[in-house]
Design goal:
mainly alpha
Length: 61
């Protein structure tokens, strides 16, 4: 959920940067969006590994 908020914040910054012709703000917005994407990807990978470990531990019982 935090990733979605970071993405929305980044989109807002990028849009504000575009409207005001502020290249730094636009760049910061894109960076926020990229960070949110990385966090989401890592979170999904962690969840997948947890699921696999849980499957293996239940199989051994």
């Amino acid at each position: 959920m935090a990733e979605k908020m970071d993405d929305l914040k980044g989109r807002a910054k990028e849009a504000a940067g575009s409207l005001t012709d502020d290249k730094d703000l636009k760049r910061e917005g894109k960076a926020d969006q990229a960070a949110a994407s990385v966090k989401d990807t890592v979170g999904n990978a962690v969840d997948s590994v947890k699921d696999k470990v849980e499957d293996l531990t239940h199989r051994d019982r």
